[in-house]
Fold this protein.
Amino acid sequence: MRLSFYDRLAQGLGDHFLETLYTEIDTLLVYAGVHIKVFGYHRMLSRRFPFAIYYFLEEENIIIMAVLDCRRDPASIARRLTNDDDTRQS
C-alpha cells in the first residue's frame, strides 16, 4: 500500500490511512452488496483517500479482491481485476 507515501506527507498520516481503510472495510458487514459493480466486482470508494475496495459476495462471505489506487490507469485496474477474476473462476 501507499503507507510510506502518506507518512512522508505528514507524521501519522500513513497510520490514519490504514485505520481509515480498515474502518471502511468493516462497514461491509452492514453494507456489502449495495455498491455498484465495476469490472464484475462491487466497488466501494474510500471517503478520505483516492482508493477503491473491490469485493464480491460468496454465500454469506465478503471476499475482498483488491484495494486499488483510483488514480491508476483504468485499463490497468481492469487488467488486475480481470486476472483476479480468472483465478476466481478456477
The mean pLDDT is 90. DSSP finds four helices and four strands in the chain. Helices lie at 3-9, 13-26, 28-31, 74-89.
